[in-house]
Amino acid sequence: MTPETTGIHHVTAISGEPQRNVDFYAGTLGLRLVKKTVNFDDPETYHLYYGDGVGNPGTIMTFFPWAHAPGGRIGAGQLVVTSFSIPATSLGYWTERLVESGVRFEKPRDRFGETVLTFEDPDRLRIELVAAEDGRQGWDDGPVPAEHSVRGFHHVALAVETTESTVGLMTGHLGFRRIDETEGRVRLAAGEGGPGNTVDVIGASGFPRGSMGVGTVHHVAFRVPDEETHLALREEVAALGYNVTPVLDRNYFRSIYFREPGGVLFEIATDPPGFAVDEPEEELGTHLKLPPWLETRRERLEEVLPLLRVPAGEGV
Ligand code: ZN
């Protein structure tokens, strides 16, 4: 069998001040902070992971908060919109919640038969909530009641100059198939399809290219079930001529990275071992977790990293 990805694993973006980021994602959107660690390549800054109760692949939004970094520009060659899924019956709840939280959103609109709310996070990253049929459970102990909680990603949208080369790579080698199309937008799905396994590729010919910085997405990761598939897919991508990194140990998953033809940075990440590898499930996100090779620097890191307050759950 040819190695394939089965959907979205995580999305990683660059934010500004970390507390504001926590307030928005763990507060307003009600995701669980599932891991508080550091950027392995720049350990004096955080790497924050949000997700459902356990941080299942397909729900994981991560940030490098760089309080003093310059703003980026959203544009071609990037993942331009990150869409989360909410229950189809929760639109009223969410419009009210966004209003009460002071988040301005665009007039709800229809896309492929589902209602979409579009807004920006505090760093101007573009976010959507899509009211969808979604069998997954969200985080049920956060500030959003379980019945309305965000279920995980709905899809991500990639903006590229020519959709065909990106679509060709994804359908020919990464396990995606074309499932729908509207003007300038091709919808792809992998694995079981549906929310969390869907990617839209948008033609952005003539649009300025994006530049990396605060308020932009750094990369998107697609998931594979095991290390064997991961290695096989690495071989395949390398054989296609892509400049792909060696397998990197990210502690919670293994990763490879390469840039797709449209300029978006792709990562392939393994489902195992997951976030409970160094912290019990009930305590996810409550301790500063460091990989073994950074433990010797813990004292210094705890001194320079700002303390973060996580918004309490409903019942607290
Ligand atoms: Zn990543």
Q: Which descriptor suits the 3D outline?
A: globular
Number of strands: 16
Number of helices: 5
Protein structure class: alpha+beta
CATH architecture: Roll
Specify the biggest β-sheet.
8 strands, mixed
Attached small molecules: zinc ion
Radius of gyration, taken over Cα atoms and rounded to an integer in Å? 18 Å
Helix coverage percent of residues? Answer: 10-25%
CATH superfamily: 2,3-Dihydroxybiphenyl 1,2-Dioxygenase, domain 1
Low-confidence stretches: none
Give me the strand/helix succession.
Answer: EHEEEEHEEEEHEEEEHEEEH
Distance, first to last CA: 49 Å
Question: What is the gist of this entry?
Answer:
With about 325 residues, this protein is α+β, with helices and mostly antiparallel strands.
Structure in words:
A hairpin with a 2-residue loop joins strand 6 and strand 7. The mean pLDDT is 96. The chain is of the alpha+beta class. It has a single domain (8-304), classed as 2,3-Dihydroxybiphenyl 1,2-Dioxygenase, domain 1. It is globular and about 45 Å long. It has an eight-stranded mixed beta sheet with strand order 2-3-4-1-13-16-15-14. It has five helices and 16 strands. Bound molecules: zinc ion.
Provide tags for this entry.
single chain; 316 residues; alpha+beta; 2,3-Dihydroxybiphenyl 1,2-Dioxygenase, domain 1; globular; binds zinc ion
Topology:
Layout: E1 8-15, H1 18-28, E2 32-39, E3 42-51, E4 60-65, E5 78-87, H2 91-100, E6 109-111, E7 114-120, E8 126-132, E9 152-160, H3 163-173, E10 176-182, E11 185-190, E12 198-203, E13 216-224, H4 227-239, E14 248-249, E15 254-259, E16 265-270, H5 298-304
Parallel strand pairs: 1-4, 5-8, 9-12, 13-16
Antiparallel strand pairs: 1-13, 2-3, 3-4, 5-9, 6-7, 7-8, 10-11, 11-12, 14-15, 15-16
Bound molecules: zinc ion (ZN).
Residues 10, 12, 219, 221, 267 line the site of zinc ion.
